């Protein structure tokens, strides 16, 4: 799948999501690069990321920066190259909904999914030793 085809796919899937779930979200951005996971584990990439700057006192964030979802085409392409059965639409949909859940939880001042993500990363580190 080309970058432009991926953008079209993301746009189509995004349009299927009801507007009430997109409240206070400034947008979804498709970025061409792969994003390495900051864990430093070899071969681990991030497919997507939700950014919420939080209140001004948290990590120098500022509410005026807005809330965004980023999807990394390069990460999807990297995984697809090593997996002939890679389902672009299913993986994109799953990632988009995952990041949207981060957004909805953020609006409710919840971090359940963040805790799940952290636990999964810790489990992966243990398995890889």
- Number of structural domains: 1
Helices, by number, come to: 4
Q: Output the CATH topology.
A: Zincin-like
Distance between the termini: 34 Å
Question: For the report, how would you describe the main beta sheet?
Answer: 3 strands, mixed
Structural class per helix/strand content? alpha+beta
Low-confidence stretches: none
How much of the sequence lies in strands comes to 5-15%
Radius of gyration: 15 Å
What is the element string, with H for helices and E for strands? HEEEEEHHH
Q: Regarding quaternary structure, how should these chains be classified?
A: single chain
Name the shape in a single word.
Answer: globular
Helix content: 40-55%
* CATH-scheme architecture: 2-Layer Sandwich
Beta strands, count: 5
Question: Which strand order do you get reading across the main beta sheet?
Answer: 1-5-4
Q: Roughly what is the average pLDDT, rounded to an integer?
A: 90
Give the CATH level 1 class: Alpha Beta
Itemize the secondary structure elements and their pairings.
Elements: H1 3-15, E1 27-31, E2 35-36, E3 45-46, E4 48-51, E5 68-72, H2 73-82, H3 88-107, H4 112-128
Parallel strand pairs: 1-5
Antiparallel strand pairs: 2-3, 4-5
Helix pairs in contact: 1-3
Question: How would you sum up this structure in a few lines?
Answer:
This protein has 129 residues and is of the alpha+beta class. The chain has helices at 3-15, 73-82, 88-107, 112-128, and strands spanning 27-31, 35-36, 45-46, 48-51, 68-72. Helix content is 47%, strand content 14%.
